[in-house]
Amino acid sequence: MNLLAFDTSTDTLFIALQRGTALWQHQAAGGANSSATLLPSIQQGLQALDLQFADLDAIVFGRGPGSFTGLRTACAIAQGLALGAGKPLLPVDTLLAVAEEAREQHGLTDVMAVLDARMSEVYHAGYRWAEGLWHATHALGLCAPEALQVPEGLSVVGNAQAAYAERLAPQATHLPALPTATALLRLAPRLMADGHLVDASYALPLYIRDKVALTTAEREAARAASQPAPHA
Questions:
Q1: Which residue, 25, 48, 114, 218, could crosslink 158 as a Cys pair with Cβ 3.0–4.6 Å?
Q2: In angstroms, rounded to a whole number, what is the distance separating the alpha carbons of residues 141 and 112?
Q3: Rounded to whole angstroms, how far apart are CA atoms 107 and 122?
Q4: For a pLDDT cut of 70, what percent of the chain falls above it?
C-alpha cells in the first residue's frame, strides 16, 4: 500500500510516506510554518521513495481537534492534492493518533488522550485498545485542565502536561505523545477497511470550539486572576 500522511494540528509538523514496506518520515516546526513547508517536504518524500501522486492509494491527514490554522492548512492541502491526483482521503481524529502513538511508544492500551487547546483549555478523549483496534471510552471534549476527570489507573497521554502541570489530573500518570504521521499510517489500514475513506470534498476540520481567541476584557481578567492578592 502506498500512503501519504501528515498532521499539522500541533506545534510540530509530521509527514510520512509509505511505499510498500519502505517508509520516509519528516518532522519540523509546525504552526504558521506548516503552510510554507508542507508541500515542499511532501515533494521531497515522494522523490526519496520514487513515488508520484498517482501512485498513492490514499492521502491520510489529521483532521483535528487542534490548531485552527494548522487544521485549515491540512484540510486545504489534503483537498487540493486529492482533487489533483484523483485520490481518496482518510481524515483521522488527532486524539486517536495520540492514543496510537502512546501505544507504540509506551505500550499503553487504555488512555486519556489530551492536547493543549490553548486559552487555558484542553482537548480530551478516552480510548481502549482491544481486538486489534481502538474503542472510544470517553467522548471527545474541551474543558479547563482542572475540570478533566480521569478515572483511577488511566494514563494521560499527549502534550498538555507541559503547559498545565499540576492543574491537569495531578493524580494520574502522564506520558508524552503527539499525533505523528507514522501513527496515522498505522491506523490507516483498519480505518480504510472499515469504510472511512472520503471524497476530496469532505476534507473538513474537526472543530469543537467556536471561539479562537480571548477578548481584551477576558485577557485582562485572566491576567488579574494570576496576580498575587495584595496584602491587607
A1: 114
A2: 11
A3: 23
A4: 90
